[in-house]
Structure to design on (480 residues):
């Protein structure tokens, strides 16, 4: 069988020769109805019978892997797709550097590896749950379709992780696969595992910020896992990254289009001061300071996903060869990090200071730094739009100490510039930095659905090009 082609004959599309792997095929077929129940209960609310113009992976060939067509979401062909195996691939870092990559789970790392897979797996259904109400307020059919595309692919990412659990982790894996369908985002008793995945995504600006910031954390984690010496995990993550790129595209262009609409409306109305919030809001667009506050919120919540700056778990996973650095294979050093150091921002004697830490312990910090650099590139593109229209305003990422709940800065309150504030000052100034109830209410007041093909809500500009090169008035969702 050609690995680039996907076998669509059975219940579960796959390129892992599932037909010959009776035990895993049965396990997945047994898991399938529970998955569909979960999708029907927790997937996009109100649109399960609508026909959505979606892409489905039909190959893992980078040159052409997707096919577009109208699909009812519960009929989407969620499958198990791994990037092709690379001949002679080795463990590329840590104490096993230079050994053959593992095709089976190394016994001594079983628990650590299972935990990495479960944590990644848990984020996938969580975001579907967080976004399930958004279809009802979509600003266009184009945006609605993009939301649903992201949702079905997060569902497929859950399949990707569940395949690993079922194939490589025996009874424990089966139990973890069930538990992934039981937890619920935001549920007080059975929440999802990570904080940002229990927050609400109440409006479309939140959705775009989430896909820009939080899906980008997903990209960084997948990049680190794609380096894994456990080859099936690496191959799974490599293909997931292909899909993930679209999620970040949705976020980045979504925010860009909101910014563009705001700046154009200001220009047309002759408003040059971006801080004249009430005047700008009267135009029915979202003022730039509020967009900044939303970015502050989503950026800070996402930074918490990188864990503590100094982490023995991260050190152990690297040392074992299970989770590498961002683009490990392109870095030029010994890939073992037994002796080097890395600068870490820490809270020392009540002040925020840089301190050199052992490079192995500082891996979360390093991945987070790579993440922040990647975010900054996107923010720069947003600022170009503002600048080109001629509005004097610059969006900025807040300081990494701002609004943190995990790691070095969770014990302090800092403003967006990293100045430490007293609790009283933080309470007084919180609404300068983060969306207030009034901000949220205003955004919510704009969230009126627009379901005419080719029409867009007044607070967001149309995209430059359609999906799959479709014309502007294409009916991306046939609502039933
Ligand atoms: Fe994902
Ligand atoms: Fe994603």
């Amino acid at each position: 069988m050609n690995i680039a082609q996907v076998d669509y004959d059975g219940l579960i599309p796959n390129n892992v020769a599932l037909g010959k792997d009776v035990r895993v095929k049965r396990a997945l077929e047994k898991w399938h109805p529970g998955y569909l129940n979960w999708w029907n209960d927790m997937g996009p609310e109100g649109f399960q019978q609508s026909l959505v113009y979606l892409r489905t992976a039909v190959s893992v060939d980078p040159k052409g892997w997707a096919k577009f067509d109208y699909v009812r979401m519960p009929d989407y062909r969620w499958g198990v797709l791994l990037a092709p195996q690379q001949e002679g691939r080795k463990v590329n870092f840590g104490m096993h550097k230079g050994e053959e990559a593992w095709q089976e789970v190394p016994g001594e790392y079983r628990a650590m590896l299972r935990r990495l897979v479960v944590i990644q797996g848990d984020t996938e259904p969580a975001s579907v749950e967080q976004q399930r109400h958004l279809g009802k307020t979509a600003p266009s059919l184009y945006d609605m379709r993009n939301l649903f595309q992201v949702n079905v692919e997060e569902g497929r990412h859950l399949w990707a992780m569940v395949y690993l659990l079922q194939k490589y982790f025996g009874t424990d894996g089966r139990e973890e696969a069930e538990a992934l369908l039981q937890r619920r985002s935001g549920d007080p008793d059975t929440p999802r595992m990570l904080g940002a995945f229990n927050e609400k995504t109440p409006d479309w600006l939140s959705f775009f910020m989430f896909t820009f910031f939080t899906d980008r954390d997903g990209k960084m984690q997948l990049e680190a896992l794609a380096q894994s010496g456990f080859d099936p995990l690496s191959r799974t993550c490599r293909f997931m990254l292909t899909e993930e790129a679209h999620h970040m595209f949705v976020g980045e262009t979504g925010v860009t289009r909101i910014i563009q609409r705001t700046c154009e409306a200001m220009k047309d109305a002759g408003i040059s001061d971006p801080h004249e919030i009430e005047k700008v809001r009267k135009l029915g667009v979202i003022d730039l300071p509020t967009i900044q506050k939303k970015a502050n919120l989503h950026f800070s919540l996402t930074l918490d996903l990188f864990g503590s700056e100094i982490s023995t778990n991260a050190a152990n996973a690297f040392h074992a060869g299970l989770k590498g650095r961002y683009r490990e294979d392109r870095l030029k050093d010994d890939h073992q990090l037994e002796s080097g150091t890395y600068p870490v921002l820490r809270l020392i004697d009540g002040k925020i200071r840089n301190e050199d830490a052992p490079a192995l312990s500082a891996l979360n910090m390093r991945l987070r730094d790579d993440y922040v650099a990647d975010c900054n590139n996107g923010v720069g593109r947003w600022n170009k739009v503002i600048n080109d229209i001629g509005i004097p305003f610059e969006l900025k990422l807040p300081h990494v100490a701002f609004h943190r709940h995990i790691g070095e800065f969770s014990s302090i309150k800092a403003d967006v510039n990293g100045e430490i504030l007293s609790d009283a000052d933080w309470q007084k100034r919180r609404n300068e930095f983060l969306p207030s109830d009034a901000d949220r209410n205003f955004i919510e007041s704009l969230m009126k659905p627009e379901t005419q093909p080719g029409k867009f809500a007044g607070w967001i500009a149309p995209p430059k090009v359609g999906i799959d090169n479709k014309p502007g008035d294409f009916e991306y969702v046939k609502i039933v």
Observations:
- The chain has a mean pLDDT of 96.
- The radius of gyration is 23 Å.
- The longest helix spans residues 231-269.
- Strands lie at 51-57, 66-72, 341-348, 351-358, 413-414, 420-421, 477-478.
